[in-house]
Design a protein that fits this description.
Two copies of one chain form a homodimer. Chain A is α/β, with parallel strands linked by helices. The first copy, chain A, has two domains: 139 residues, Rossmann fold (3-Layer(aba) Sandwich); 184 residues, Dihydrodipicolinate Reductase, domain 2, CATH 3.30.360.10. Chain A has eight helices and 13 strands. Chain A has a seven-stranded mixed sheet with strand order 3-4-2-1-5-6-7, with helices on both faces. In chain A, helix 7 links the parallel strand 11 and strand 12. Chain A is globular and about 60 Å long. The two termini of chain A are 15 Å apart. The interface between A and B is large, with 57 and 57 residues.
Chain lengths: 342, 342
């Protein structure tokens, strides 16, 4: 019997995450019968890479999604809200990287290493969590299983690729301008990002927090199935091109040693432990770009509470933080027979 | 009666902090009868700015310190250990920016806004705390007075000027090389710093922490007079030229509201509150360089504990984090009649 193959649409194919989705689909040899690239009308006429093929970009319309088995969407919340419910109704499995549906009660929010079973009974839309949440929960889950997670204080060091291609270009342009004493614009980020850090990603939300920060609270609770988990987030943009870093300080219900934590992290799927301070071995964004792993280092006892650990967690936000996680969800859906339309 | 004037020596005058000390002495119109610039023998022959004068750099020897009333030292621990005890014995007041004496029981470790009285009874050496500690305790002290500080989780975003002139040059050189696809060296920082972040400042110390991180624990306890204060530190180098930023998450013994905290911070000496997220107003290193203030923003309730607050604290690490604090100690010593030799 020939392997079942699926028609896949990448929605938002010209964006930083969309391009990475096409790359990951090819690298992981996703069983696609066809892959189509969809984007906003102004991108029609462009081409995007898929393996050694170039795909013509088509307009993202509901008509273009006809017959598509799996939609990988990263075109922003407005487009997702407009197209995905209809596509889902017509039988497509939509894996959505926007924040549009993440907190909907009937939409699974999935990180395959953490809550794969949440996908069962999906209603056509599965949400891909925010980049900074994905890498954190991958690191926290094995520790939670050991000792019961109670509270997390997280401070992020997020790269400009989280703001897409334009975010990267603005950092490079501003940096070159500053080095040469020339003027520059501030358009994409909330302030100048070159040789600066900005404690503001996304929009102001509630109680003095940004929406980017609140995602670390609510998405983490939903994915880990811990509705009362205490999380204090601070989200900061740093002048790094690719890769998000996080200082993650966690408290547990039960005792947990550094050795136990390290062993659990080393055994966990999707995690690479890089942890030898004396030998200058720890995860850094420059080393983690283009990888699908979540890198954990600086594992140490937090002496300031009863059962505490401090970690340093780094991942490529466009890969495991977005595209890779979405394709992993698609792979799992295929393996589990959860793709309706095929 | 004419104003009393003091002979001042800046030890380590060619370094980033030493140059800033000379600048601050001039800006604050410190009552100096004479200012001499001392550095290592290889810097002899150089000149450094003091107001509109140029000072000839002399070799840092005990002979050169004869008759000096106040030594402002920033030449590293080895030089401080060698020269300051002798100079102190001979009657100089030595204000030392190195870590050599900070934790000595008979050496006051002083931040004028926090523990000015600790200077009384000094034995000739007063230690200037580490940059990242100074700005944090300035922000914490008014909140501690309100509600009793219990625990702090701090993650730093430290600029390369913390590693001196060479640290700044390495960032600029590497950045230009990377933008132009050219090779570069890694000498000053523990890894490439351009477009990267490094979770390692200083040396590996104990229990998986760096010495830079442990300073945030032990110096904070000593300055605030809270020997049992719980502190969990993470110190990270970021590609910023000047200005350290800190995510400071604190727990208190008693209730404290955001409004109370903001009012206390606004009234506190040495603090500038910049805090309006919706209007994109928060402290950033690019705005805080060359200032003597500690800037506090992103003041918000930490919902993850009973009495919690989260803050974002930024200061110029060469100014309030080093040179300004040292000159403020000297000013206070002069005002309080604590300079022996004069």
């Amino acid at each position: 019997m020939p392997e079942k193959r699926y028609k896949v649409a990448v929605l938002g194919a010209t964006g930083a995450v969309g391009r990475e989705m096409l790359k990951v689909l090819d690298e992981m040899r996703f069983p696609a019968s066809d892959v189509i690239a969809l984007a906003s009308p102004r991108s029609v006429g462009q081409q995007v890479d898929y393996g050694n093929r170039q795909l013509d970009v088509q307009a993202a319309t509901i008509e273009a999604l006809a017959g598509v088995d799996i939609v990988l969407a990263s075109a922003g919340s407005a487009v997702s809200k407009q197209l995905l419910p209809l596509a889902a109704q017509r039988g497509s499995l939509c894996i959505d990287n926007s924040s549009a549906f993440r907190m909907h009660a009937d939409v699974p929010l999935v990180v395959p290493e953490v809550n794969p079973l949440a996908m069962i009974g999906h209603k056509g839309i599965i949400a891909n969590p925010n980049c900074s949440t994905i890498q954190m929960v991958v690191a926290l889950q094995p520790l939670h299983q050991l000792a019961g997670l109670r509270r997390v204080v997280v401070a992020t060091y997020q790269s400009v690729s989280g703001a897409g291609q334009k975010g990267i270009e603005e950092l490079v342009t501003q940096t070159a301008a500053l080095l040469n004493g020339k003027p520059f614009d501030v358009v994409v980020h909330n302030a100048r990002i070159a040789f600066n850090v900005i404690p503001h990603i996304g929009d102001a939300a509630a109680d003095g927090y940004t929406d980017e920060e609140l995602k670390l609270v609510y998405e983490t609770r939903k994915i880990m199935g811990l509705p009362n988990l205490a999380v204090c987030p601070t989200a900061v943009r740093v002048p790094v091109t690719a890769g998000h870093s996080e200082s993650v300080v966690c408290e547990f219900e039960r005792p947990i040693t550094v050795a136990q934590a390290r062993a659990a992290l080393q055994q966990a799927h999707g995690i690479t432990v890089v942890d030898d301070l004396a030998a200058k071995q720890y995860p850094m964004p420059m080393d983690c770009a283009e990888s699908d792993s979540v890198f954990v280092g600086r594992i140490r006892k937090d002496f300031s509470v009863a059962h505490g650990l401090a970690l340093w967690v780094v991942a490529d936000n466009l890969r495991k933080g977005a595209a890779t996680n979405a394709v992993q969800i698609a792979n799992l859906a295929v393996a589990a027979g959860l793709v309706h339309g095929a």
